[in-house]
Amino acid sequence: MKNVIITGSTSGIGLGIARYFAKAGNNILLNGLEKNGAEIAKSISDEFEVQTIYSPANMLEPAQIYDMVAEAETTFGKVDVLINNAGIQFVSPIEEFPTERWDAIIGVNMTSCFHTSKAVWTGMKDRNWGRIINITSAHGLRASAFKSAYVAAKHGVTGLTKTLAIEGANCGITVNAICPGYVKTPLVEGQIADQAKAHGMTEEEVIQNVMLTKQPIKEFVEINDLAALAMFIASDAAKMITGASIPVEGGWTAQ
Fold it and tell me: How confident is the model at residue 198 (pLDDT cuts 50, 70, 90)?
């Protein structure tokens, strides 16, 4: 059993990972801004008979991040695994890109990973064991037009992952990134419907010709695939894997 913090875990990929880890018997601190976050955490606790905490910490507020980690350490006794999953997106040509959107995306997607990692680092170092897993994106390895802030943030997390891996190498701490392609979450399903309407295409045409055009394997990434990989990286079996950015994107970055 491990004690796990997962940011952005009350919906989408983060929620899927939280449920996967809880099913394996791990205690989970769930984080997110959903109004029913506490109910989500309780339902996971009841279903899998593990201890859960819900934290509404805003990833743009460093003080709230440090309080979140302190709460996990106090309640669970320690934090073994940190999964940085929180993220937001905005798409726009650079000349029209709102400055406040840039600041928010850099803050949530990248800077929060620094603060969460810093907050858990001393405890992991003292115990000579820890796992930090950053859920980045294929855009942490490749770029796309009109996503300047998102691509910059995800590339930044790739660099942070490598740096912390080096710093943790002699402390029993591994730091890795998982880089998904398109994942079929409710948010993405909404985008498919919107693009189909906007372009006069069927939803299948949007999937194949717009969203998955860069992937040789024309399928969405399954959330459980990401969760299973995260579970492996968090295990003792992965002790020699660190500083890696592992693509899970149907061959997108192989080209």
Answer: confident
Residue 195 has pLDDT above 80, yes or no: no
Mark 202-219 as b/e (b = at least 16 C-beta within 10 Å). eeeebbeeebbebbeeee
- CA–CA separation, 23 vs 71, rounded Å? 22
pTM exceeds 0.90: yes
CA pseudo-torsion sign 22, 28, 34, 39: positive
Contact 161, 116 (CB under 8 A): no
Give one DSSP letter per residue of 189-230, joined into a string: HHHHHHHHHHHT--HHHHIIIIISTT-SS-SPBPHHHHHHHH
For the annotated catalytic residues, the residue numbers are: 150
Question: What's phi and psi for 173, nearest 5 deg?
Answer: -105, 125
Q: Measured at the alpha carbon of residue 136, what is the angle toward residues 128 and 32, in degrees to the nearest 5?
A: 85
pLDDT at 196: 81
CA angle 189, 191, 194 (to 5 degrees): 115
Distance CA 249, CA 233 (A): 17
User: Identity (one letter) of the amino acid at 63?
Assistant: A
- In the predicted model, is pLDDT for residue 144 greater than 80? yes
Starting at the earlier edge strand, list the strands of the sheet with 52-55.
52-55, 27-31, 3-6, 81-84, 130-135, 173-180, 245-248
Q: To the nearest whole percent, how much of the chain has pLDDT over 70?
A: 100
